């Protein structure tokens, strides 16, 4: 997985780095909500897609699981408001 960065990195008030999707909610969701509610730009780096985890019968392959986790993450970030906050980003 190759990380790419926005051409001009915004000055962030909070940068959360997590190993895989869903950790941002369990570990720092409240903190992200607090910063975003004050219009503070935040960043999130998810190191893996979570495709090596247990699929609990939801998917047939690691590729399907990665796509499911990607969709779940996008839904979560929308609910937190990370996508709408100016200067905030996810990689």
Q: How does this structure look, described?
A:
The chain is α/β, with parallel strands linked by helices. 37% of the residues lie in helices and 13% in strands. It has one domain. The longest helix has 19 residues, at 62-80. The protein is built from 2 helices and 3 strands, in the order E-H-E-H-E.
List strands and helices in order, with pairings.
Blueprint: E1 14-18, H1 23-37, E2 42-46, H2 62-80, E3 89-90
Parallel strand pairs: 1-2, 2-3
**What count of structural domains?**
1
Intertermini distance: 11 Å
Shape: elongated
Q: Report the strand count.
A: 3
Largest sheet, strands/sense/barrel:
3 strands, parallel
What's the helix-strand series?
Answer: EHEHE
Structural category: alpha/beta
Radius of gyration: 14 Å
Strand content: 5-15%
Poorly predicted ranges = none
Mean pLDDT: 80
Task: Supply the number of helical segments.
Answer: 2
State the helical fraction. 25-40%
Strand order of the largest sheet: 1-2-3
Features:
91 residues; alpha/beta; 3-stranded parallel beta sheet; 13% strand
